[in-house]
Structure formats: structure tokens, C-alpha cells
Amino acid sequence: MRKKPVRLKALDAEVCEALSDPKIFADLFNGSIFEGEQVVKPDTLRLCDGTQTLQVQKNTLETTKRIRDIKMKGQFAEGKSAVLLAVEAQREVHKGMPVRGMVYDGMDYSEQIKKLRKYNRQSNNLKSSSDYISGLLEADHLIPVLTIVFYYGEGKTWDKPASLHEILKFPDELLPWKQKFSDYTLNLVSCVNVNHENFRTGLREVFELLGVAHDKERMVKLLTDKKEYYSNLPKERSDLITVFLDIPMLKESPELFVSQEGGINMCTAINEMVRDGELRGERRGEKRGEKRGEKRG
After folding, report:
1. Strands of 145-151's sheet, edge to edge?
2. Rounded to two decimals, what is the model's pTM?
3. Which of 63, 160, 209, 256 is deepest in the core (most CB within 10 A)?
4. Residue 168 has pLDDT above 70, yes or no
């Protein structure tokens, strides 16, 4: 029997808006990178401008501009240390993502050096020739940058490329020295490589449902096995599911799916979405059949 998927049509803008919530953003990092440990605190996060520019002097001064999906600055140790956290939300497998991620991180580090250099020069902190070359002092440090690639695509798994080396073609003569070439590895996060129970927000249900969203039989089984839970889901959790699975009926008329206890009945909403998709498919099939019949006639 051919398995019919629950087609995901989430708009990237809606996904990025949902992930920009500090609680969701922190939970994404804590549940995936930090395996459930609450390392990133939502109240210490500050949304940053995702626009990045890098100027390179060739024959003329050229400016490269990139825009990250979401970037936040997290504070630690009462503001004495910080980290830049970024998320790239991907609905499709991006074959060049290792290079793209490397450029993003490099531009963040380059921007930090630029600011430190400017401050040191204006403050007359540069004394030696080595200080002037870099614009940095021995006591200067950069803020760490950590980027997640959150893949929520349909059907396919993102096996490769997960690192820069996987898209490089090494000559046979250089293979013994392959590791001498710097690599860049993606922090790839998807439903197949995380434990959904590590998450504390609606991402827990999102990852659980994304894992079966492409298989109608598995989806039905999950909703049957956990019917009591998914029949009365808190609204903030159902809202996040609605974004990723794109459930039009729940977006347009959420009042129709309110349970007796006041939560949202996701079982009914998802089942109706699947049934509606099947009906649309049947109607398209009927129309194609009618057109073929007209042509033959």
C-alpha cells in the first residue's frame, strides 16, 4: 500500500517568526545542542539584526551582504560573558549550506574584530607593530558564535552535505592529508537526530509530529496511541504545530477545535487536514480523468 504523506507547506516567514520567540529559540538550542540541559536562558536573549556586511578590497572596495534568518545574543555570568546564537531554518536541503554557514559565522567574527580595531585605535591602545597589524590587543577576545541549521523539510532526510569536506573533491594524491584542510561541520537539527522529549515548549510535539508527518499510517497510529494527550493540547503548543504542519482550518477557525477542557483537539484538526488533502487529490484525479475522456472523445 502506498503511504500518503501529510504535506508540509509551512511558510518560511511564519517559521522564523515563531522561532524568534526567546522561549522557543532557547528551547531549540537547549533541546538539541545541549541535550535538554537548560543552558540558554530566554530572559538573557536579545534579538540582533540579521543583516551582515563584509567589505573586501580588490581593484575596488566590494561589499558583501548576507541576512541570517534569526540571530540572538545570549548573556552568561550576569552579563560578563556572551555568545551569539543563530538559526538558519531550512525547508529544503541546501547543498551549499556548509559554505553558507561558514561565511555567516566568519562575517560575525569579522564584524567583532572590526569593532575592536576601531575602539583600540580611537582609544590609542595600539602600541606595538603587531598591535597595529591586527588592531587587537592580547587581552581582546571574540564572542563565540554558534549556528544551528534547523531542517523541517518534507520526506527527504538531510544526510549530506553536513560538512565542508563532503562537498570538496580532493585529488587522490592529497587524500592522506585530507584532515590538514580545515573543515566546517553543520550543527544540523531535524526530527531524525534529536530526542523530542528534550524540549519543553511546543517544539516537543513539533519534532514528534514531524517524525511521522510523511507517513499517514504512522501519523494515525501516533494520534491514536496518544489520543488523550493530543485531544486537549494547550493553545501555545498547538499554535506552533500549526505553523510547521500548516493546518489551514486551525488557522482560520481555531474555535471549531476547542476541547471540552479548553485546549485544542489536534487529533481532529490533523485528521480533517489529511481527509481534506485526500478529497482534493480525488477531485484532481477526477478532473484529469474527465479531460482525458474529452480528448479521447
Report:
1. 45-47, 70-76, 81-90, 145-151, 187-189
2. 0.84
3. 209
4. yes
